[in-house]
Structures are given as C-alpha cells and as structure tokens.
C-alpha cells in the first residue's frame, strides 16, 4: 500500500469511527502525542489529546449528533507528515475539512482536524457510504 493510500485509509477510519459511533476506534485514530489539536465548527480551539479526544467522545455519545459522510478526500504526503482535504456532508450541507496525520511507526495517526462551512460542493457525491468515503 502506498503512503497516499495508507493516509486515505487512516482518514476513512476517522469517518468510519464517527459513523459507527465507535469510541475505541475514534480514540485509536488520534496520535498518542499531546501535540494534537482540533477546531470543530463554531467551537474554540482544543489542544492536547485529552481535550480533543474527550470532545469526540461527547459528540459520539450525543444521540442528536448528525451523520457525516466524507467526499472527495485528497491526500498529500510529505515524508512522515500528511494532510487530507475533503468535504463533509451533514444533512445535505457541506463543510470543508483538513485532517493532518503523522506517521507513528508504521501507522498514520491524526494530529489535527479542522472543519468549516463552504459554498463549494464535492465533485463526486455518493448516496450510500461504502469502502473509501471519497
């Protein structure tokens, strides 16, 4: 598997953990470094593994959290660092997201997520998520 494919797989694991509301999987996608951050739409910035992962646990546990489908994920790899830019579809509306990963051993782990509103739309829209979400 190429580094690009591995990063896209890690990105898919993040969205799959959210879709499945799988707390262990969500915990596993994030780096174990304390140098992680997250910017949820409308929230202030979160820094450190404890605050970032806790925020995702609160979202996953909330039965009113909307479903999210990832579209048009594009990975860019620079040595042991990579980022993915993709669209998040929520109830027919789109956000654009950036997910940053680092290589920890042989596995890509997320160190940053940021999503925000956009007027753009993805090039491909899939009604039923399957396989890679892009």
Description:
The protein is of the alpha+beta class and 134 residues long. It has one domain (3-117): Nuclear Transport Factor 2, Chain: A, CATH 3.10.450.50. The protein has helices at residues 3-20, 23-29, 49-61; strands spanning 37-39, 46-47, 69-78, 81-90, 93-104, 107-117. Strands 2-1-6-5-4-3 form a 6-stranded mixed sheet. β1 (37-39) and β2 form a beta hairpin. α1 runs antiparallel to α2 (23-29). The longest helix has 18 residues, at 3-20.
Summarize the SSE layout with pairings.
Elements: H1 3-20, H2 23-29, E1 37-39, E2 46-47, H3 49-61, E3 69-78, E4 81-90, E5 93-104, E6 107-117
Parallel strand pairs: 1-6
Antiparallel strand pairs: 1-2, 3-4, 4-5, 5-6
Helix pairs in contact: 1-2
Quick recap of the structure?
This protein has 3 helices and 6 strands. The protein is an alpha+beta fold.
Characteristic key phrases:
alpha+beta, Nuclear Transport Factor 2, Chain: A, six-stranded mixed sheet, 134 residues
Number of strands: 6
CATH architecture: Roll
Q: Percentage of helical residues?
A: 25-40%
End-to-end separation in angstroms reads: 17 Å
**Alpha plus pi helix count:** 3
Radius of gyration: 14 Å
């Amino acid at each position: 598997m190429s580094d690009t494919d591995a990063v896209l797989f890690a990105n898919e694991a993040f969205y799959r953990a959210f879709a499945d509301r799988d707390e262990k999987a969500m915990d596993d996608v994030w780096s174990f470094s304390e140098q992680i951050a997250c910017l949820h739409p409308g929230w202030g910035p979160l820094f450190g593994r404890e605050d970032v992962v806790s925020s995702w646990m609160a979202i996953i546990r909330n039965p009113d959290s909307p479903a999210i489908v990832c579209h048009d994920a594009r990975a860019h790899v620079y040595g042991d660092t990579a980022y993915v830019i993709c669209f998040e579809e929520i109830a027919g509306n789109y956000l654009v997201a950036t997910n940053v990963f680092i290589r920890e051993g042989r596995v890509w782990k997320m160190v940053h997520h940021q999503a925000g509103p956009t007027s753009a739309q993805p090039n491909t829209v899939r009604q039923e998520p399957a396989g890679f979400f892009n």
